[in-house]
Amino acid sequence: MAATKPDCAIVNGYLVPVVGEPIPNGTILIAGGVITDIGDAIEVPAGTTIIDAHGRWVLPGFIDPHSHVGVHEEGNGWAGADGSELTGPNMAGVRALDAINIEDEGFRDALAGGVTATVVKPGSGNPIGGQTVALKTWGGRTVDEQVIKAEVSVKSALGENPKQAYGDRKQLPSTRLGIALVIRQAFHAARHYAATRDTALAAGEPFAHDLAQDALARVLSGELALDQHVHRHDDIATALRLADEFGYRLVINHGTEAHKLADVLAERDIPVIYGPLLSGRSKVEVREASISNVVTLAAAGVRVALTTDHPVVPITHLVLQAALAVKAGLPRQTALEAMTIRAAEISGIADRVGALTVGRDADIVLWSGDPLDVMNRAELVLIDGIEVCRWENDGYVVAERGMTTRRSAA
């Protein structure tokens, strides 16, 4: 029995906590936006608001750990294209948070797909693109009220995208050699900067901060991860080499050919945010794209999450990607974890989201059945225990904004 009087209770549902066994006819108690109890023999106090989940599957909200929702706005063309600040190859000081339009239609799409959290990242036009942010997909009056973690990582890119962006201008970096040089020089400079800064501050001396250097120093200290946009196996090898040189925490993003190095990544416990799985082979780097590649990675013991790379693939199709991966041989438990607890762990937000357990945020979705069956749909979406989206009369009804999260961002 929960000590705090619950605000509401979800009862009679088929609960899928993800981190534990399913609970038929289970109950979840929610108070203050947090799960306070979960099980199959829980007494619901009188006066508690009841959500009857009879016949429905109840899961934690899904997480897309790599999207551009709100920074690559849909249908707004040039005016909504704020993903890559291409005025310089090292843009570690910029933040995706400063460009997010929470009225981008992608956020409503996320709710329809049962996605209640995402990590929004700058684009991949720069060798170092900027800082990422984890946020809820609905609820705030401003984007700041949806933030789970204000800085998750620094985005970096290898391969074709920065090569083309700067090569077309005949400036550094126009080759893979040049891209690695830019990243290497930036981290050497950040290492020197951090030492100089720390000495000055310890002595009480004035110090002129550089936002790009500060961000990279946080990567070097392990506070932030380096999210590496990379497709080809040789570029993945470069990503590993650079991580070895500077000792930072590396996360592979996309990883189209990561299956070729699956054993290496597993040995080093380097996670892969794989995808998108539904896009075409639009450039040379992704000509070996295949849903079966993520199956190979998981079988080798690599920690995997799934991404839509929204708007490359609409974020509402995250669960469809998982279903197709299961069809290709990915264990269904691994597929569920890839959209929930694994995505949360890789993004450093697993204390808040990713599973149905006591103490985590009540970001909960009621499905008409197994979400990995494409015939089922999200019928009710709660964020922080508050209803934000409901299937009604053959369409989705989304709540007005203004519901604020109960915790401030980390």
Automatic annotation (TrEMBL):
Gene3D superfamilies (alphabetical): Metal-dependent hydrolases (3.20.20.140), Urease, subunit C, domain 1 (2.30.40.10)
Pfam families found in the cross-reference section: Amidohydro_1
Residue stretches in coiled coil: none
Database matches in InterPro entries: Amidohydro-rel (IPR006680), Metal-dep_hydrolase_composite (IPR011059), Metal_Hydrolase (IPR032466), Metallo-dep_Hydrolase (IPR051781)
Membrane spanning stretches: none
Domain Amidohydrolase-related per the UniProt entry, residue ranges: 230-372
Domain of life (superkingdom): Bacteria
Name listed for the protein in its UniProt record: Amidohydrolase
Natural source organism: Leifsonia kafniensis
